[in-house]
Structure formats: structure tokens, C-alpha cells
Amino acid sequence: MSFSGAVQWWDEWQLRVLVLGSLFIQYFLFFSSVVRRWVLPSWLRMFMWLAYLGGDALAIYALATLFNRHKQLPANGSGLEVLWTPVLLIHLGGQHAMTAYNIEDNELWTRHAITAVSQVTVALYVFCTSWSGEKRLLQAAILLFVVGIIRSIQKPWALKN
């Protein structure tokens, strides 16, 4: 496989890899939230910490990739890709059982609230710019957006309380 072939493959599969990577991190955080209070090896704690910090970054990068893809190829598209926007918003909401990795993170609830508002705004903007006008997708997207907005608000609320 040549370098140009690898670049072409990445251009085609980048969004799928990023969404699946974000989903994998969410699953990892879900399962590690159960065991994080146990005595664990330091390498596993390091992976949990990296997943906690990197999960949002990966979902934001996937959201930006989705925005750029539809900016380059406006709404001609891959119909179900538009539903990845609210799914990524759900990923940005994080896991219910692990709102903060350290207790000191609770003091940063205002920053998380402002971040949640900006993430919801960006996700809605990306959805509006990439939506093709199909009504069935709109109904599913509204349902997923409601879940994503609630999840995004729950994290700063839990940190505050």
C-alpha cells in the first residue's frame, strides 16, 4: 500500500474510525467506572485517566471532521452520517458513573457548564449544516439530541452537587 493509498483510505474511513474510537472509549469508561475505586495496577489507572481525558477530545475531533466533511461535500450525502452528530454529543456527555476522575474536578463545574453549552451549540450547528432535509432522520435526530443535551447538562450538575 502506497502513502497516497493510505491517505485516500484515511479520508474515506476517518469519520468511522473516530466514531468507533469514541464509542470504544465510552465503553471502556463505563466498565472502568465500576472498578476505579479498587486497588488497580498503575498502568490500568493510567489508561483510565487517558480515556477520561481523551474521550472528549476524540469526540470533538470527530465532530469537527463531520463538519469539515459536509462543508466540502454539502448535503449530498451519506444519510445516516448526520445522526452521528447527536451520538457524538451523547459521548461528550460522558459516563454517569464517572463525572469526575479526581475530587478536585468537582470545583470546575462552571467550566464544564460553559463547555456543555458550547458543545451543544456546535453539535446543533453541525447538524443543521449537514442535514439533507429527510424527515425520518429529523425525528431520530431530535430524539438523540434530547438525550445528548440531557447528558451534557447532567455532568456539570453532578459536579456542582
From TrEMBL:
Give the record's keywords alphabetically.
Answer: Membrane, Transmembrane, Transmembrane helix
Q: Which residues are listed as membrane-spanning?
A: 13-35, 47-67
Pfam families per record: DUF4220
Q: Which domain of life is it from?
A: Eukaryota
InterPro entries reported in the protein's UniProt record: DUF4220 (IPR025315)
Q: Does the keyword Iron apply?
A: no
DUF4220 domain sequence ranges? 49-160
| UniProt cross-references to PANTHER family, sorted A to Z | OS01G0798800 PROTEIN-RELATED
> Under what name is this protein listed?
DUF4220 domain-containing protein
Q: Which organism is it from?
A: Triticum urartu
